[in-house]
Amino acid sequence: MTEPSSVDQADYTVAWLCALPLELAAAESILDDPHHHTPNDAQSGYSLGKIAGHNVVIGCLPSGIYGTNAATGVVSRTQSVFPNIRYGLMVGIGGGVPSKAADVRLGDIVVSKPIGKFGGVKQYDLGKSIGEVHLKQTGMLNQPPSILLTAASQLESKGMRKQELAILGRHWNFTRPARQSKDPQVHYGTIASGNGVMKDARERDEIAERFNVLCFEMEAAGIMNHLPCIVVRGICNYCDSHKNKEWQGYAALVAAIYAKMLLKLVPVTKAQAEMKTDEILMLPFDRNPRFLGRSEAIQRLKSQVLTRDHTKARRAAISGLGGVGKTQVTLELAYTIHSLDPTYSIFWIASTSIETAEQAFQSMCKALGLPDGGPDDIKSRVKAHLSSKRAGSWLLIVDNADDPTMWLEPNINSSHPLKSFLPQSHEGFILFTSRSQRLMTQLVGPGVIRLSALDDASAVDLFKSSLIEKELTVDEETSIALIHYLCGLPLALIQAASFINENSVSL
């Protein structure tokens, strides 16, 4: 037996969701290769492994907690921990609806499939009250993703292979009612989902007739609009008063085997292609063609960013007065890195407010092709992805990080400070700009470059390059006096040149 392997969080593309411990046990029993994870990290609480070449996260609802809301919570947490989940399978047991139209029996399998106006799952207890009895159904749930529906169609046309089902006889010893075939039958259609256990045959039949339902369960409605998902249910009862647990283990296992067969028909290469991060260039301004000076700072930062020495720090900061040129230096560095190594992805966070930072994370999430969600979900997914090997090489620039409370304390949008969402990777580098050297020391440590005013020669060059009438700087004494008056600050020099250009005045 091979040793359990370890896989990065961002390498998982499939979520396998369960509601009961026995469903979790069935899922774990059909893993091709269990993955190892440390017990105290964010992956704890999940079973991880490979099924048919796919890296799969198996999550289970907390013990004793059921229903659509609980399922929604599990999906949200799973997506935040594993940012590249593309689709899911809700796999477990359900209650069948026996009818003349569909011979659903104990041990059979029901798979959600779009039928008519329903996407495969119908939340039957959600709607507006009409009188004292009926509900007018409102809202629609999403249908399963096309990649899983295509695989399900292939299975539907082929039927379940006997060699796949032979495993059942080695694990369970149940007798079945007389039927031409003793193998479980697979039914495709609408699954009814609600927050209560269906155990009344009359109510079961009324709802089943209204929505053409094949089985009932309690979690799928909380998932369909949050994660592209297909539902697989092994039938363990008939949703009536004659409930027992005799068929639960068998039903959970046969549902898991069907789900594994389904994943065998889903191309692994397509899932990996969807995860691949292309090089991204997210910069707020074009390169400044008149940028001059600062060669020493840029060379030092360039060496830090591009080094392959993993013992070196992967964070740095530029601090200095407003207008000293921190943003321009950073911008020039970013374009320099991009020209030297186009495989680098470059991201930019404007840190002037919580709102601008949140918008930047949202833009990064979209550019990376990660699932959307709440503010903390988005930041967690971006962090997890950029912390993974799959993200490749990247430079993250955090501009104008001047407010300590914004980065070091929780805020109105989050219970965690922004610094907790910063990624860490040997292949990535974070560069801050700030007026606050104290904050930079707290975020970066000693890797802070203090940017001073330009020296006289560089200041004259910058000032001259910004003037329409270059000959004005021939008066060297007046030029130097004006530069000293403006403290050698690049922004002030450019603004002065702009004023002179617009008004045609002398120095």
Could you list some keywords that capture this structure?
single chain, 507 residues, alpha/beta, Rossmann fold, five-stranded mixed barrel, five-stranded parallel beta sheet, 16 helices, 17 strands, 36% helix
Q: Your description of this structure?
A:
- This protein has 507 residues and is an alpha/beta fold.
- The protein folds into three domains: 9-270, 3-Layer(aba) Sandwich (Rossmann fold); 295-450, Rossmann fold, CATH 3.40.50.300; 456-503, no CATH class.
- It is built from 16 helices and 17 strands.
- The strands form three sheets. A five-stranded mixed beta barrel has the order 5-11-10-6-12, surrounded by four helices.
- Strand 10, helix 5 (201-211) and strand 11 form a beta-alpha-beta unit.
- Mean pLDDT is 84; it is low at 128-133, 169-174 and 270-276.
DSSP summary, beta strand count: 17
Number of domains: 3
The CATH architecture designation of the largest domain is: 3-Layer(aba) Sandwich
Approximately what portion of the residues adopt beta-strand conformation? 15-25%
CATH fold-type name of the largest domain: Rossmann fold
Q: At the first level of CATH, what is the class of the largest domain?
A: Alpha Beta
- The fourth-level CATH homologous superfamily of the largest domain is Nucleoside phosphorylase domain
Helix content, binned percent: 25-40%
Uncertain stretches:
128-133, 169-174, 270-276
Using only CA atoms, what is the Rg?
Answer: 30 Å
Spatial arrangement of strands, main beta sheet: 5-11-10-6-12
How many H/I helices?
A: 16
Average pLDDT:
84
Which geometry do the CA atoms define? Answer: elongated
> What is the end-to-end distance?
82 Å
Structural class assignment = alpha/beta
Main β sheet profile: 5 strands, mixed, barrel
